[in-house]
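Help wanted!
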Amino acid sequence: MTRGLGGAAARGIALPGLVAALAGLALLLALPVLLSASLLNAAIQMLIAALFACAFNLLCGQGGMLSFGHSAYFGVGVFATVHAMNALAGQGLLPTPLLPVVGALAGMVFGAIAGWFATQRTGTYFAMITLALAELVHALAPHIKGVFGGESGVSAMRMPAWGFSFGEGRHLYYMTLFWVLLALLLLYGYTRTPLGRLTLGLRENSHRLRFLGYNTHLLAVLVFTVSSMFSGLAGGLQAVNNELGNYVVFDANLSSSVVLNSYIGGVNMFLGPALGAALMTFFGLAVSDLTRSWLLYQGILFVVVMLFMPTGLAGLAQTWALARRRCGAQRLLPLVGAWLVALALLSLGTVFAIELLQQLFSTDYRAGVQAGAPWPAVRQFGRSWAPGAVTTWLVPLVLLATGTPLARWAGQRWAAALDADQGQDAPR
Amino acid sequence: MDQFVVSLLNGCIYGLLLFMVSAGLTLIFGMMGVLNFAHASFYMLGAYFAFTLQPYTGFMGALLLAPVLVGVLGVVVERFFLRRVHQHGHAHELLLTFGLSFIIGELVKLFYGNYPVEYRVPASLDFAAFRIGELNYPFYRMLMGGVAIAMFVMIFLLLTRTRVGIVVRSAIYRPRMAEALGHNVPLVFMGVFGAGAALAGLAGAVAGAFYTTNPNMALELGVMVFVVVVVGGLGSLEGAMLSSLLIGLVTSFAVGIDRSLVDLLALVGLGGWAQGVGGLFTLKLSSLAATLPFALMLLVLLLRPSGLMGDKT
Amino acid sequence: MTGPILQLQGLRKSFGPTEIICGVDLDIVPGERHALIGPNGAGKSTLFHLISGNLAPTAGRILFQGQPIGGLSPALINRRGLARSFQVTNIFPKLTVFENLRLAVMQRHGVQAMFWRRVDRLPGVREQTEALLAQVRLAARHDALAGELSYSEQRSLEIAMTLACDPQLILLDEPMAGMSHEEIDHTVALIREVTQGRTLVIVEHDMAVVFALADRISVLVYGQVIATGTPDAIRNHAGVREAYLGEEAGS
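Answered by r_m:
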């Protein structure tokens, strides 16, 4: 799709987009009134994850530098802020609402050093180095108890400031919201600065930039530093919220999840990673009581996105807008319906199968199995399923077997619809 | 002195183990330009498959069969996953393998539990090969080293002396030319990917019995393999061997050194001060052994960014 | 300035056992348009790589405005006033044409690490970019993605980006490959126009272009310069005829 067409689509969604953005902002501001305490806490987690993902995407989606160890900068922000909380007790220059700045500064300094090393190489090497750096911190942290605490970590206490107690969820929420919105605004502004444009240049063709007179190593270090600064800010926010820093923050989970979330959301759009992170965090919290396989689902979703939807979920909106311009909603809506049905079938089938397997292979179940006797039934979705019965396995099989061809069919019809109108829309 | 010899042997064998895994990774990267993040997952699966098969086929049977299974899985991954995203570029392929490694890790936790499994060296192989001073040196360690060396020799001979090897090497350097000459390059890709996976699986099957077999082993070893590759230079088998041994030896010797910076500074009379400062200074080298390869990597990046034997790209 | 703007002295480059550049001595006079011709594989692009910093010489010296630049980084060399274009188009495919050019223009305005001002608000950057776009006749493709331009449009963009750095010495590597006659005529006129007051070294295969543009011509064969002189002198040079022009006539 040419930029012209993309520009038209962009204009087509600009006004509705603005309205949606304002509505979204109003909703965000009203959340403490609408949600319970635990849901509000979830909202805070989602905001922090969204910020972290956007900071990550600066380096990855915009700068083209894939970092597999970004949790290091988040974690540095966490610990710096926790120590600041203890040292300053919310007094002096840094009352509680301003504490996340410490996290940002720590992330910035550590990111500059780490970035200098990592950006000596590009591409795959760079990714490996970032992973190794994060693992270095992860391996070192348990030994430096003074800084990172032991297994119980380092704790601190939020102090009242500016007339707010910061003991309530409401105060924390608005503080987090303020910082996240400010950071997102700054990050967006960054993309419009010369350095922001050069970030894209680094992704597109850093080789050429050198021949245009740019010191690409310096540029890459700067980009890395900005990204880790905002990652540290996110860490600082988490520290203030949780009043705790633990070195498990440095393990691979956080680094992996920010990569997964960003790509699921879509790295080509500015708010794509934020969307992905918020969604995944929400689902992670919501279903953590229902299933132990949440991470597996996340991984499957990621692989599905990488295989079939490289632009991510946010990219879907743009794809839809463009397709609608080309073919008209009438032709496409039935296909969208088919897609949704196929998606439902495939999701149900997959979840059923995985949950069934999860139960069958859990230690509790295996302890209950006796040699010779038929395996006990498993409870799922409110019904009992016997592992020996054929129907138990038939259900997921049928779901997957019907969903797959339907998805395939919908895909082919979609592609055909777009191709058929290609001729009409080609630029003369 | 005995301790020295033991550390030397341990270091060499650990290095050879690292090489077993990183050799496949280097070959695949050299040929396809894609870093297979899931390579260490193949290593882990080798151990788990061998553990599962052992009650049915015996230990040796498991050692033979598990790599085959992993190799088949590798072929499936290449054919149905990697090939589909090839057009989107190397970063995309890397991310896909990352996602696959993630899924494999979670599946292992699902089927086997989030804790180590009892995959052990069988009693028949659990004896001392020889004595060094007062210490018994386990035969199984020598076996691991032997397998690694045999594997290296076999790959080398295969690549340099057989017709298949020549075709593979030509596909590595000039895939399009090889294809133009009539060779089935996609088949070669699939084969090398599967072979690399099988090698990693073999390493896992052999090593998993000696070290622990747990869902974390992919990440622990994977990071080490990446360090090996950065230090040695990607695409260079000699570099991989050199840096594997280097890292193996450094780690092994460090584990035996119970000194810290305090002791070093005590030589110049600053021991008391350093002890007072605490923190980083009192850390024993033995505790830090696992982090030394990373420090080595950072050093190499400072002094010789393309790796010990890499090209100046 | 007096003295040659670019001097190659005993320049050699080997890749392993293969020597590509086998001792090149060449002086480029300031303000001239110098064409570099030679059969395929003679080493013309390698020479450009050496001069622009993409490769380091194995032996010999390269002097730009009297200062040695052999082995320096491409960025440093560019900032001293030496810019090159590439034989294989080397642009930013997913950015717009305007963005591509703006990235090149920004450097000379000293704004590389600036993150506190919007780039749209920078005086001069926009104007210079628009002017350059108009000069290479790409103003109509202002918002098109660079990766989707036609081949010759991309070549024009390539030239524009090379000019954006306001260089004293311009190296153009086969800028007109793949262009139609009309496009070639326009580009020749463009090159003449923008290289006034600058020095140009151009690699070209189209002899009509070479003889129309060049003040002097050097012929590179198997990594050595076998002749340097005015177009007429080269036309009549026996060795050149045999090695290069002669092959064309004979084939």
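OP: Thanks! One thing I noticed: Chain B touches chain A through 45 residues (CB under 8 Å).
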